[in-house]
Amino acid sequence: MSRARALIIAGHPGPSLAITALVTLLAAQAAPNGIGPVLTGPAMLAGQLSIGWSNDASDAAGDAAAGRTDKPVAT
């Protein structure tokens, strides 16, 4: 598996993008004329990806011991 693909999978793209979209839409509703919604999307995505990556990193030893091949950090 390529490094880029492993990073994408470890970031849990489905939930990360769903939460990012929801929060960005809420920010756009709260301040439709400001720059806040423009900055909210990238900030939320970065936060969600860092959560996914750190979670996979902290679970790596247990996942490797369990033989999890679907977890890129463990393989």
**Average pLDDT across residues?**
89
**Secondary-structure-derived class:** mainly alpha
Task: Give the low-confidence spans.
Answer: none
Beta-strand content: under 5%
- Kindly give the count of domains: 1
What is the end-to-end distance? 9 Å
Count of distinct strands: 0
Query: What radius of gyration results from the CA coordinates?
Result: 15 Å
Number of helices: 3
Kindly state the percentage of residues in helix. Answer: over 70%
Quick structural summary:
Helices cover 75% and strands 0% of the residues. It has 3 helices and no strands. Helix 2 (13-30) packs antiparallel against helix 3.
Provide an overview of this structure:
There is one protein chain. The chain is mainly α and 75 residues long. The protein has one domain (3-66). The chain has helices at residues 3-10, 13-30, 36-65. Helix 2 runs antiparallel to helix 3 (36-65).
SSE layout:
Layout: H1 3-10, H2 13-30, H3 36-65
Helix pairs in contact: 2-3
Question: Which labels suit this protein?
Answer:
single chain, 75 residues, mainly alpha, 0% strand
